[in-house]
């Protein structure tokens, strides 16, 4: 007969002692990853009295009553700037990313404020020499579309995420300026407004800040250095290739300001210039005529007692301007979806005008045959011919025109805001050339030619997008 297990001292029977358990190594604990940098931790435990003074002062700016979109940081070294050094008319302005600095991690964009290094070791030495020995005012001018200074209260995005990005950017820039250690400022445009390069809003701000009248700048010796120069791709002799630049905004900015432009490779490494190309080149559209010639120019004739004129053209092609200058004087009533807000309302308004005996102009984009078919059938139903005015304008030029209109009140009688890229991409992806087979009596193609005063051309003939 088997004896029952004897109870242990706690009264339990048959319990296995800890020493009897199989022995195995404890699980390896994963080290918690902290988002706080070592520098931040050290700074936290450093007494305030022992912390170095932050020499960079930050400001936010905006136009009129709009929320601020321009971030400005001004650095003054401990020694300050002597009065005789303040009156500088030569300006050397630089883009920031991929021009003065790159990420030390190799990432395209670094979120860590410590993730940066000089684009080339020669950069800080060159900038200090320009300030100390060549009497240049050194400025940083950068587009920073990833930053948001004031979050839209209706946005569903996390509020703190935007604040953290701005704080990290300020910390990084403060470190850059401290290493450079010369009086300078950084201007960062965070929105697609008048501050964003190639527009000149940041340039005007720096001239005001340093009390330099724009006309007194030493344009001949000033320079802007940036990596967005519109350089084309090229195949290297030893194999491999160099990618094209993502845009031409830095070269265009320098053009607008009226100063020389150089890429970082040209400026810091003395490399020869590379070939470049612009999607839209102002040189293609010179000012060719005077105001009298513009007023007398006839682009459209009314050939029917009553008819429908259907526009086909992208946003920014000049359709509305064409209507007001050439069709309104001939008695045409305008039907426009931007005003009426929906296609059914446009069709209803057009039918009412035709019932009342008016000729009408359909001032919409109408890129595809299916959309144009509704208007052709409406004209047929009312027994009137329909003609098409086709605006054959390239996308880059339309984007330019749209930006000019939105950024200049004198050229924007309808107070239109700038359109997103989707508006242009959507039109050109759907575009099918209009043909007479669709039912048009006639198709009138319109090529772009600047038509306006010399003062208006001076505004138009800058790069805006």
TrEMBL record:
Q: What superkingdom heads the lineage? A: Eukaryota
Q: Which organism is it from?
A: Xylaria arbuscula
Q: Which processes are annotated in GO (biological process)?
A: DNA repair
GO MF term (any one): double-stranded DNA binding
> Region (Disordered): which ranges?
1-87
Organism lineage reads as: Eukaryota, Fungi, Dikarya, Ascomycota, Pezizomycotina
Protein's UniProt name: Bifunctional polynucleotide phosphatase/kinase
Feature: compositional bias, Basic and acidic residues: 7-20, 51-64
- Which InterPro entries does this one have? HAD-like_sf (IPR036412), HAD-SF_hydro_IIIA (IPR006549), HAD_sf (IPR023214), P-loop_NTPase (IPR027417), PNK3P (IPR013954), Polynucleotide_phosphatase (IPR006551)
Pfam families, per the entry: AAA_33, PNK3P
């Amino acid at each position: 007969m088997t004896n029952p297990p004897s109870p242990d001292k706690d009264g339990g029977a048959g319990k296995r002692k800890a020493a009897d358990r199989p022995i195995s190594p404890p699980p390896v604990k994963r080290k918690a990853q902290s988002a706080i940098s070592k520098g931040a931790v050290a700074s936290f435990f450093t007494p305030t009295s022992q912390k170095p003074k932050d020499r960079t002062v930050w400001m936010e700016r905006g136009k009129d009553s709009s929320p601020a979109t321009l971030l400005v940081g001004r650095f003054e070294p401990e020694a300050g700037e002597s009065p005789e050094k303040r009156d500088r008319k030569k300006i050397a302005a630089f883009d920031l990313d991929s021009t003065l600095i790159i990420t030390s991690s190799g990432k395209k964009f670094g979120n860590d404020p410590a993730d940066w290094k000089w684009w080339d070791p020669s950069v800080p030495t060159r900038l200090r020499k320009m300030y100390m020995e060549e009497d240049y005012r050194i400025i940083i001018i950068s587009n920073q579309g990833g930053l948001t200074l004031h979050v839209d209260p209706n946005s569903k995005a996390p509020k703190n995420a935007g604040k953290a990005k701005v704080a990290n950017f300020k910390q990084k820039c403060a470190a850059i300026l401290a290493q450079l250690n010369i009086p300078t400022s950084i201007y960062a445009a965070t929105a697609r407004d008048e501050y964003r390069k190639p527009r000149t809003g940041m340039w005007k701000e720096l001239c005001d800040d340093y009390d330099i009248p724009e006309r007194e700048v030493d344009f001949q010796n000033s320079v802007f250095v940036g990596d967005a120069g519109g350089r084309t791709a090229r195949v290297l002799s030893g194999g491999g290739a160099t990618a094209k630049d993502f845009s031409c905004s830095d070269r265009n900015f320098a053009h607008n300001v009226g100063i020389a432009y150089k890429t970082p490779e040209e400026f810091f490494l003395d490399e020869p210039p590379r070939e470049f190309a612009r999607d839209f080149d102002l040189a293609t559209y010179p000012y060719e005529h005077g105001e009298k010639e513009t007023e007398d120019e006839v682009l459209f004739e009314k050939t029917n007692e009553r008819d429908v004129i259907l526009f086909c053209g992208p946003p920014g092609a000049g359709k509305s301007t064409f209507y007001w200058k050439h069709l309104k004087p001939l008695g045409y009533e305008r039907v426009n979806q931007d005003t009426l807000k929906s296609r059914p309302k446009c069709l209803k308004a057009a039918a009412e005008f035709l019932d009342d005996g008016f000729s009408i102009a359909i001032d919409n984009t109408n890129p595809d045959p299916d959309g144009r078919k509704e208007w052709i059938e409406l004209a047929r139903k009312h027994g009137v011919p329909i003609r098409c005015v086709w605006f054959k304008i390239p996308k880059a030029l339309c984007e330019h025109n749209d930006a000019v209109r939105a950024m200049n009140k004198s050229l924007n009688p309808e107070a239109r805001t700038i359109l997103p890229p989707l508006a242009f991409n959507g039109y050109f992806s759907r575009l099918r050339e209009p043909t007479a087979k669709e039912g048009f009596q006639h198709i009138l193609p319109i090529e772009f030619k600047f038509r306006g005063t010399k003062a208006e051309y001076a505004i138009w003939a800058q790069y805006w997008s």
